What does this fold into?
Amino acid sequence: GALGTGSEEDLHDGLRVEWLKSRARSQRWGEEVLLVKEEMRRTLEGLEHDARQWEAHCMGYEGAGVTTEHREGMQAYAYRQAAVYRSLAASFSALWGTTASETLRPTTCAEEAQEIEAHAEETQVAAMIIV
It folds into this structure.
């Protein structure tokens, strides 16, 4: 039948198939974790970029026939917007349990290589157990 003859070989084959399915699921979730971390990093980086853009607006209000009061109001608004974006970044970092420097640091190739090596070693050990 679908379960085989019930021999030890069939049992090993079934375990091997289930182990491979589990390994594939684990790898997919590992990839998902990396993607989410990258999204977090990009979110914080984007918020900091927006804050810098608002601060740059402050310099652009000089001259151009704008009254002092109007210029000061526009600058205050721009500085407030920059503070809002930085506050959002700080809130996200607190929610995610990371500092901005940890999240903004992209994963290096060496770190990824270490993760792959560790996973390969686990795979070899598990393959020896199954066989």
